[in-house]
Design a protein that fits this description.
Helix content is 47%, strand content 17%. With 310 residues, it is an alpha/beta fold. It has 2 domains: 5-98 and 197-309, D-Maltodextrin-Binding Protein, domain 2; 103-195, Periplasmic binding protein-like II (D-Maltodextrin-Binding Protein, domain 2), CATH 3.40.190.10. Strands 7-6-8-5-9 form a 5-stranded mixed β-sheet, with helices on both faces. A 4-stranded antiparallel β-sheet has the order 3-10-4-11, with helices on both faces. The chain has a two-stranded parallel sheet with strand order 1-2. Helix 5 packs across helix 13, helix 11 (233-244) packs across helix 12 and helix 13 (267-282) runs antiparallel to helix 14 (292-299). The longest helix has 20 residues, at 212-231. The radius of gyration is 19 Å and the shape is globular.
Length: 310
C-alpha cells in the first residue's frame, strides 16, 4: 500500500526533529552523519536531525526504550534480548555484517582457548553482541557463566581493564578490539565470525506506526550513504577515523572485517538472530518460557526495506 503525498506531509508535519544515534561500530552511520545527508533530506520539512552517541548496543536500546532516540544501531542478538525483556523495538535495516567481536587477551597471556577461562575474569558489556558471543563460547566449551568471573564494563573500559591487567580476558568490540591488537599486541584467541549477529538499525513500534513514511525516507538516505561508502571506501575510512579518534591502521583492521554489501533485513538475519536467541535461552540468559522464534519474528520488520528496491 502506497502512502499519498497528503499522508506523507501530515506525518512529517507533526515532527520537529528526528533523533538518531551514531556509533563507532556503525561506519555507514558515521558517513551519513558526516555528509549531512539526513539534514539535506528533511530540511524542506523543517525537521531538525539530532545525533546521539551510542557507546554500545545496550546504550542504543536504553535510549530507544526511554524514547530519547527514534533510530538506534545495535547487534541483532542484542535487539532480540531487549525485545524478549519487553523493549518494543523493531529491526528494520542492516548497516553491516561484521566480525566485530572475539575473545581477547593480553599479548603475553597463557590463555589460548575458551576452556582456559575457567576461574578467570572477563570484561564484558551486558546486553551486547560481545556478551552474547562470550556466553555462546563458554557453552560450546562446556563452561557455565559461574565458571568465569564477569566484570561488567562498557566496551572502552573493558579494553582499558585488559590493557592494565585488571582482567584476564575481554569480550572485545571493534574498533576498540582492533586498537587493542594494533597498539597493545592483544591476541584474539577465540574467533567465530558466524556468531556475530549483524549490525541492525532499529526504531520503536510507536515511531514505525506513527511515521512510516519518515522511516522509509530515513532508510533511503541510509542506503545512499551505504552506496557512497561502497563507491568510496577512503571517505568511509576518514569518517570512521575522525569519529573514533583512532589511527589509520586500527580502522583499516576494523573495516577489513566489516561487510556492508547487504542492507535488506529478512530471513538471513532472522535465522542468525534466532540461533543466537536459542543458544542464550539454553545458557539461561533468556527465560525458558520465552517463545524465541515468535519474538524474533516480531523483531524483524522487512516491510520498510521493500521501499529501497522500488
Amino acid at each position: 500500500m502506497g502512502f499519498g503525498l497528503a499522508a506523507t506531509q501530515a506525518s512529517a508535519a507533526d515532527l520537529s526533529e528526528i533523533r538518531i544515534d551514531w556509533a563507532t561500530y556503525n561506519p555507514v552511520g558515521l558517513l551519513l552523519k558526516k555528509e549531512g545527508l539526513l539534514e539535506k533530506e528533511f530540511d524542506k520539512d523543517g525537521i531538525k536531525i539530532r545525533w546521539v552517541q551510542s557507546a554500545g548496543s545496550n546504550k542504543a536500546l536504553e535510549f530507544l526504550n526511554a524514547g530519547s532516540i527514534d533510530f538506534g544501531s545495535t547487534a541483532g542478538a542484542a535487539a532480540l534480548i531487549a525485545r524478549v525483556n519487553g523493549n518494543p523495538v523493531k529491526s528494520i535495516y542492516v548497516y553491516s555484517r561484521p566480525e566485530w567481536t572475539a575473545l581477547v587477551t593480553g599479548k603475553d597471556s597463557p590463555i589460548k582457548s575458551v576452556a582456559d577461562l575457567k576461574g578467570k575474569s572477563v570484561a564484558v558489556t551486558r546486553g551486547t553482541d560481545p556478551h552474547v558471543f562470550l556466553v555462546r563460547a563458554l557453552a560450546d566449551a562446556g563452561l557455565k557463566d559461574g565458571d568465569v568471573k564477569f566484570v561488567l564494563l562498557q566496551h572502552a573500559d573493558g579494553r582499558l581493564a585488559l590493557t592494565r591487567g585488571d582482567v584476564d580476558a575481554w569480550a572485545g568490540l571493534d574498533p576498540l578490539m582492533a586498537a587493542a591488537e594494533v597498539e597493545d599486541g592483544a591476541q584474539l584467541f577465540y574467533r567465530k565470525p558466524e556468531n556475530n549477529t549483524w549490525g541492525v538499525l532499529n526504531t520503536t513500534e510507536t515511531f514505525a506506526k506513527d511515521h512510516p513514511d519518515v522511516v522509509k525516507r530515513v532508510l533511503r538516505v541510509y542506503e545512499q550513504a551505504r552506496k557512497q561508502a561502497l563507491a568510496d571506501p577512503a571517505a568511509l575510512k576518514v569518517a570512521l577515523i575522525e569519529a573514533a579518534k583512532l589511527p589509520d591502521a586500527v580502522i583499516t583492521k576494523q573495516l577489513e572485517r566489516t561487510d556492508i554489501s547487504k542492507s535488506r533485513i529478512g530471513d538471513e538475519q532472522r535465522d542468525t538472530i534466532l540461533k543466537a536467541g536459542l543458544a542464550l535461552q539454553q545458557a539461561g540468559v533468556l527465560p525458558a518460557d520465552a517463545d524465541i522464534a515468535k519474538v524474533t519474528g516480531e523483531l524483524i520488520d522487512p516491510s520498510f526495506g521493500e521501499a529501497l528496491v522500488q
